[in-house]
Amino acid sequence: MYSPFQLTIKYLNYYLTASGSKGHGMHSPFVFDFITKVLNDKTNYPEYEKAENLRHKLLMDDKMLNVEDFGAGSSISNKKKRSVSSIAKHAARPKKYGQLLFRIVKHFEPDTILELGTSLGISSYYMSLGSPNARVITLEGAKEVANLSNDNFRLLGLKNIELVQGNFDDNLSSVISGLSAIDFAFIDGNHRQEPTERYFRQLLPKVNNESVLVFDDIHWSRDMELAWESIKKNPAVRCSIDLFFTGIIFFRKEFKEKQHFTIRF
User: Fold this and answer.
1) Tens digit of pLDDT for each residue in 35-94?
2) Would you state the torsion angle of the CA atoms of residues 177, 178, 180, 182, taken in this order, to the nearest 10 degrees?
3) CA distance 169 to 64
4) Phi and psi at residue 191, to the nearest 5°
5) CA–CA distance, 51 with 53 (Å, rounded to integer)
6) For 55, left (φ over 0), alpha (ψ -120 to 50), or beta?
7) Is 239 exposed, middle or buried (0-12, 13-18, 19+ CB in 10 A)?
8) pLDDT per residue over 59-71, tens digit each?
9) Pick from 45, 80, 86, 43: which is nearest to 63 by CA?
């Protein structure tokens, strides 16, 4: 993983070279629509408060959990026992990106959502709120973290979220085989090149023209940057949007040629 200093330098370079966030001069109607209606949507949706209430509750929880790490580790802590509050503070997606997930899901209205990396379930909750009628399947490797998230889903009355506990390498194939299609996927686990590319290839047979894949931490390490570049080159990918901390993949055939965008967010 990159050091905080390296990441800061990379972010500054991204911020100075990325396209403006207003969409001016954007020649792709699809991407312009995405920028104006999703990235730049400043509506204060009431669902935001619901998800942030869960975050606040978790930030106040000092209970210790055993956290098995099946991926590239944490940039904050590699301890096996961590408090819920520490995980909520350092590992959960920040509010800005949870709300972005909500808006993307709300905009595209997917029927089936797959998440690799539940953590404490904040992003799962945001996506569930974005498309209440969707089926949300979320995978989490760490048993005690998964149990806590499941408890919270039950307390919140979320009946459209199904949590599968276990290593992605053991469970992902069987989960995917049970789905007729994957309309939306959020990949936030492992953070190494080979597994990230492998998960992408496993998802491919079930994606369609309208499917959207969101990859977390695409510039977190050299490994993740290599994975992101490899995924963009796949023939099925027609368009990508790089928001630095998040990468978005589209398969829409209306893009006759591949188009890749780096947009300030």
Assistant:
1) 999 999 999 999 999 999 999 999 999 999 999 876 555 444 456 899 999 999 998 889
2) -80
3) 26
4) 60, 35
5) 5
6) alpha
7) buried
8) 999 999 999 876 5
9) 86
